[in-house]
Design goal:
By secondary structure, the protein is an alpha+beta fold. Helix 1 links the parallel strand 1 and strand 2. The longest helix is centred in the first third of the chain and has 20 residues.
Length: 480
Amino acid sequence: MYDVAVIGAGVIGAAVARELSRYDISVVMLERENDVACGTTKANSAIVHAGYDASASSMKGQMNAKGNAMFGDVCKDLDVPFERIGSLVVAFTDEDMETIQGLLENGIKLGVPGIEIIDSKAVYEMEPNLNPGVRGALWAPSAGITEPWELAIAYAENACENGAELKLNFNVQDIEKTADGFTVKGEDQEINAKFVINCAGVYADKVHDMVASVPEFKIHPRRGQYFLLDKTTEGFVNHVVFPCPTKMGKGTLVVPTVDKNILVGPDSQDLGMEDKEAVQTTADRLQHVRDLVSNLTTKVPFREQITEFSGLRAEPDTGDFIIDWSKGVEGFYNVAGIKSPGLSSAPAIAERVKDAVVEALGEVEEKAAFNPVRRPRIKMEHLSDDEKQALIEKDPRYGRIICRCEMISEGEIVDAIHRAAGGRTINGIKRRVRPGAGRCQGGFCGPRVLEILSRELGVEATEIRHEGKEARVLIGETKA
């Protein structure tokens, strides 16, 4: 019997598990996929929002502003890249100027630091590639960029290092309320827990309804599609650049990534309630992204595109984050509808959930041995020549470059496999250390990564998956 079961190991579920691992209780993460961070967490804009747009009275507004302030310390402890590059909401019309004035006033209510409206001259000095006709912009210096998948991985890794457990390929099929808690049933296994925390993303409504007699909310998926441009486009924009928001979201933006690429997107497409796996890209919607971003700038160098992708947002029918105990099921806590700014809010959400669950558990003690600091990850690309040489002399695997686009060594890949919550798939290694994230998209390094995974995990090469359980890379030998 676990004290707490967390369903879902995206950035929210992993953050919650890590906060709970501070205490002398048993915690298990249940993830339906082959790896953590395989849902919304792996496919979004990677922005840490300043927190000026959600209403000051909403859960979104409260969690975003607080989470943003916590982000620097969290990323320092977990060795996750984070840069406060600031954001601009660009106004081209009188109506846009009214919109950003309203955002300014709301941001001040929420305590967003340094927020102000700047004139067109200042905007063009910051972002010269914008279209003519800019009237002004809302400048929020506390906004930033990060790697959401690495944050989730780091949260999960640190949680496991502090005693939490992670069960992958645990696809929840049913939940039974028992006298002393819950029985959570997977396809071929089950666990018992006193409390359940529902962090199941787009499936959060279905998970809740497995145990509740009365539904409390519905989640419908909203798809967004993106273009990722090569590192040769570094400097095209230097800040997070938004258009004025609409009822469908914050709009199609242009933003640099922490790895020096440029990201363009997303669009916003509501899908049917059952389309919770519809993450394909489509030619018409990608063209729509191009059309939308042309309202900000017509100079985007799309010829430097290296890939496109899409992600699903968990759109709740309540219009706000759902972070509370279920009304009808004692001991069941919902963390649902966590769309943007969910990433930015993750540290604050995790703290809120931890406080509620610890209070419900009663007399629990903090672990004296809890270590909030994740072991730093060696990044060969960032080392000096002398540092590289010293490392290679100690471990020659760091001298064997597997991914030439991103200059990723065998040593880095091996380390990523053997960490707590380590990578087990081609994409899992890509998310952790970036082989395959460059211009060739794994065309050269993919087979080598597969060989290393097979060797280090002690399994046949045919057992290695690209991503999900059915995503086989090899099916057998030719001419066998």
